[in-house]
Amino acid sequence: MMQIKDYQAFWEENERAFRFDGSSDRLPVDLFLNGDWICDYMQADCPRYYTEYEYQKQIRECCSRVTEAELGHRIKPSVDFGVVQDVSIYGGRFQCRPHATPVMTHVIEKPEDIPELVQRMKKVNILDAGLVPVYLQWRDWIDRDYGITLTYGDAIKGGATTMAQLCGVTNFCTWIMTNPDEMHLLADCWLETAIRYVDTMRAETGYVPGDIRKFSMMSDVAGLLSAPLYDEFLKDAEGELYRRYAGGPGDRRYYHADYHLMHILPLLRDIGVNEVNIDPYVDCSQILSVIPDALIWGQIPPTKVLLYGSPEEIRQCVKRDVSQAGASRQLVIGPAGSINPGTSFENLRAMCEAAETYGRIFISGEERIR
Q: What are phi and psi of 83, to 5 degrees?
């Protein structure tokens, strides 16, 4: 296995590899350490991390010094509220317990509450709603402290996950069967609110799409729906967001779900999805059999292999993925989901080293997979 002697050079080349233009003969690696991993490693106070700017800043800076020493990897300044900012605009109460990621309390206690919520959301001022004012304040402080201007508006929580956060997962899965009329109202409300939210946040933060536009949706709960239910309740709504924000033939439409998703993958293909980070229970060849032109963002199982597996198991996973998707540059090496708290530096190094060993597939114009 090829050991990496200069991680700074590794990540500099990684930026070139992400261009997919021949600037590097190696496939890129996606290594994103989120707040859950950071808090676990630093033994941080989670409620303080997610609610106090100076504390979050301090923890991220301290953790970055460690990751730079271990991996040459810098944790960049960011506003981190976990997974709840998008749903916070609907009015739930922010909650964060020790050693846990933040959640929002349910907004909908019974299906009969939905029409009232729909009417209320029509009048909500996005800039005053939920965590948005806090985000904008922290964004100003990051600009002050680092000279970095953050923008917002190229990604959103998908419809199934947002609705499940509003109702509770069990209620969502029940009511979509027992109360379809109300749930159709909620799905329509989500689409209308999502458009206002994205448009407002883009305007407020100065977001400017690039020449190739990209829009991302993250929706683990989508995998709990059957294909007919996803088709009925969410396909058209999520498709509308892609058409609105990344509708061109060369644009990138990304979908993330940590859970089983192969059963709705044909429907995602139909709405134009061409980048995926999904379903650790399948491999790249299965995904490409449904969406042949997909760019696959990682297929290493994040728990079974990257967290609990051995470095050799990680290497074999990367080798498999490169064999199936790498030759056509349709692979970003990484996990099918988030890097879980507790994932060791040894295993993260194994992923990067496997990229060096198996990911250099274009040598002098010839494909090579070792």
A: -110, 20
